[in-house]
């Protein structure tokens, strides 16, 4: 009975778009299949929770991700 | 000094309603009491964090929960 | 289909003992009952994960918890 | 830059075995591929953390998982 | 390659204001520096995720935090 | 009343050593100070939980971290 939590940045605004409902469904389906294939886990008891994290709440390299990307260009 | 995280789906729309502030207060009170009763933990240092997860962000059976419920009917 | 994570310190040594398997079973049972009573959640799809955290890995008041307790006496 | 956390029960003893290092490597590889395929996320900034949870620390149906499985037979 | 998650209450309304983007940037910068100084971890592979938790979703002392603060006055 | 979770790899074996109790105390102290300085949070209600993650349980670049480091040399 696995529990999987996937955190991704919530993209959006002029530079992109966030994960769509269809993309989230693909993540849920894909990771559930993976756990069944690799560990024999039953899909019926595999929970997947996706969190979209606002860009200003995600840091890497000591910077909020938007600032980090600007500097990395 | 326990830390408890409770994740539930954020219900709503035509088919239901999300947990109310009153229901959340009952969860906080109930789980804090439980930790005091079972382990003798002080309520003053028991933290409870509740997360409401949008339906499209929660998967079970390899499907987003709304789709899963539709098929389970 | 709630997911609950309970983190408690792993007590032990001369000053106490950790939660026993019986106490963990009481936490699992109690929090599952609570979610059924307050939100009508089905026990069959309620997951509870307990983490015992070593004392040196838990901080409060800016100190590891053992040091914090020593100073609080 | 996704962060993925996978929690599975630590199987073992007479009735089974836990995930092997090879199986964990397959989970890491598979979920990283999935995030690249579905959302275009770079593997270099995709973190995966696996937690093996002792059976007595995982509850479902209001019971520790071993007891739950015994009753489900 | 550390992963740090910081959860704080989302303040606001007549009694206060939430963390600003500038304050979040300071948290990201500060905790990344700390991990580099204490453990030699590379900022480039240090992820920080901040979650603002609504006041009604955070409990302490068996009460939602707003109620707890009212009684503590 | 912030809650901070810091996950780092558990180094060790011939190639290194894990974070010492002293280093963990520095992380707890440092992050608590940071939250007080930036957001005015009280140390008395700031919880810090550190998790050491075994190397085979942490993935980056689609590989367990030890393999990733070998290839990155």
UniProtKB/TrEMBL annotation, chains A, B, C, D, E, F:
Region of interest called Disordered, as start-end residue ranges on this chain: 1-22
InterPro entries xref list: 4-OT, 4-OT-like_dom, Tautomerase/MIF_sf
Domain of life: Bacteria
Keywords: Isomerase
EC number: 5.3.2.-
Domain 4-oxalocrotonate tautomerase-like: from-to ranges: 2-66
Family, as annotated: Belongs to the 4-oxalocrotonate tautomerase family.
Protein name: Tautomerase
Organism: Phaeobacter piscinae
């Amino acid at each position: 009975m696995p529990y999987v939590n996937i955190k991704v940045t919530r993209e959006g605004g002029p530079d992109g778009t966030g994960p769509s409902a269809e993309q989230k469904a693909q993540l849920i389906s894909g990771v559930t299949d993976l756990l069944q294939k690799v560990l024999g886990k039953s899909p019926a008891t595999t929970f997947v929770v996706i969190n979209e994290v606002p860009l200003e709440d995600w840091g890497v390299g000591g910077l909020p991700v938007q600032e980090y990307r600007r500097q990395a260009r």
